[in-house]
Amino acid sequence: MKMRKYTLMNDDSELPEDGKQAPASQASSSDTESDGVNQQSTGTDQTVDNQSSPSVEDVATLQHKAVTRPEDTNTTITSTPIVDVRNLTKTYIIGRTHIPALQGISLRVYQGEFVAVMGPSGSGKSTFMNLVGCLDRPSKGEYRLAGKLVSRLSNDELANIRNRQIGFVFQGFNLLSRSNALSNVILPMVYAGMSREERERRGRSVLRLVGLGDRMNHKPSELSGGQQQRVAIARALVNGPALLLADEPTGNLDSRTSLEIMAVLQALNEQGLTILMVTHEHDVAKFAKRQVAFRDGLVVHDEPNPSPDSAKDEWTKLVNKAAVEHKVKVTEEAR
Length: 335
Hints:
Blueprint: H1 43-49, H2 56-59, E1 83-94, E2 97-109, E3 114-118, H3 125-132, E4 140-145, E5 148-149, H4 155-165, E6 166-169, H5 181-186, H6 196-209, H7 225-237, E7 243-247, H8 255-270, E8 274-278, H9 282-285, E9 290-295, E10 298-304, H10 311-325
C-alpha cells in the first residue's frame, strides 16, 4: 500500500511510498519507551533541526476552497465515499436496560471534506466516532470505509484498518512522557518491521510538515500544549491515513493555541486530507467545511459551510492585538 503524502510547503524531503504498515493500533498508548530511536540528538538530527521549520503562518497560507459533495449538485455520484454509514444503530445493554446511543444514522463523507460533528453530551456523537474509528461495533447497520465493509470484520482486521486507514488525534495528546517527539511519531511503525532509517525518515518528514522540524528531540514536558498536539497530528499522519479523526482536538488548549491547531488542520485539509472532527464548540466548528449536529442518537442538522472562517487569519489578528496591548513589535522572519 502506497503512503499518501500531504505537502504543505516546498520541502526537499518526501515521505517514502513503500514500506509496510504497522499492525498495531494507533489508538492505543502506553508509557513504554520505543526502542527504535535514540533519545539523544545525533549529527543527523542536528542537521535536520537546523533546517527552517514552518510556523502557523507557513502551514496555513493556502487558499481555502469549498468541497462540493455529489449529492449537493444534481449530478451522478461517481466517487466512493471515504465514510459511508447506513442505518447505523448502537444500543448499550446494562443489565435489563437497553440504552439507544445511535438510532439509524445514515451519513456519507467524501474525499477532501472537513466535517465537524457537534452535539450535547449524550447526543451520540462520541459513539459515532468510535464506530467510524473501528474502536467499537454497531448493533445494526453497515459501515464502509473507502468502499470496504468494515462493520463485520474481526478484531485483528479492525486493528489493521485502524493502522492503515485511520489517523487519530485526541483531546489529551496521549504522548509518551519519556520519549521525544520523533519517538512518539514513529511509534505506529515500530512493529511494522521497517528499518530504523525508514521510520526516522518518515517521522522527520511529518514533523517538518506540522512545523516541528526544530523540536524533534524535545520531550512532551519541553513542548507547549499546541506543540504537543502537533506531535499527535504528525503521529496520526505518519502511516498516510485515508481519514483523520479528531476528537475535541482543541479541548485542552487556550484560544490562541486552538486557532494554531485549527490552522494546521485546515491546511492539511486543503491538501486533500479528509477530516472528521468531534467538537462541542461552535467557535471551532466554524472552521470546518460541513457541520453535522447530533441529538438523541439522530442527525438533526447536516449543512455545508461553503465559506469557513480562516483560523490562520483569526490567529494573526489575535497575535497582533496582543502585541499592541503589550507594546510588542511583531515582525515576520524572511524564509
